Amino acid sequence: MEGKIKILIVEDDSFFAQLCSRMLEEEGFSVFIAIDGEEGLEMLEKEEPDLVILDLLLPTMNGQEVLKRIRENPNPKLAKTPVMTVTNLAQEDEREKCEALGIESYLVKASISADIFLAKIKEILNRKKVAQDY
């Protein structure tokens, strides 16, 4: 086995980021936190995570711009990194914009539980593993 699965959380709400981080670390994942979009893109390059959990309302650069830049990354591995958004934006047009940019899942913070959060992460990582096996 190559080591722990790496997850990057790009979230400016430190309480929510720490809560997610603790939950994921208890599941055996290695977790990195970026507090804004620019730091998130820097950490993407440095850590090459297996999954990015992305808030849309961020300082310096919104989540959709971060997602767009991930998809445009010249490194094909990084450009294909699975991204799920966890946000307070519940509007359908926001979801559609993110889906057009290739997100794996769009979760609204107010309507998810820890079980749903973890299940979505595991589902995305399992799809990624299956895709890599072919």
Q: Could you please describe the fold and organization of this structure?
A:
With 134 residues, the chain is of the alpha/beta class. The chain has one domain: Rossmann fold. It is 49% helix and 17% strand. A 5-stranded parallel β-sheet has the order 2-1-3-4-5, with helices on both faces. Helix 2 (37-47) packs parallel to helix 3 (63-71). The chain is globular, with a radius of gyration of 14 Å. The mean pLDDT is 92.
Terminal Cα separation, in Å?
Answer: 18 Å
- Mean pLDDT level: 92
Radius of gyration: 14 Å
- Main beta-sheet annotation: 5 strands, parallel
Outline: globular
Number of helices: 6
Kindly state the number of beta strands: 5
CATH C-level class: Alpha Beta
The appropriate CATH architecture is 3-Layer(aba) Sandwich
Written as H for each helix and E for each strand, in order along the chain, the element string is: EHEHEHHEHEH
- Quote the CATH topology: Rossmann fold
- Estimate the helix proportion, in percent: 40-55%
List keywords for this structure.
alpha/beta; Rossmann fold; 5-stranded parallel sheet
Question: How are the SSEs placed, and which strands pair?
Answer:
Layout: E1 6-10, H1 14-26, E2 30-34, H2 37-47, E3 51-54, H3 63-71, H4 76-79, E4 83-87, H5 92-100, E5 105-108, H6 114-133
Parallel strand pairs: 1-2, 1-3, 3-4, 4-5
Helix pairs in contact: 2-3
Q: Can you give me a brief rundown of this structure?
A:
The protein has one domain: Response regulator (Rossmann fold, 3-Layer(aba) Sandwich).
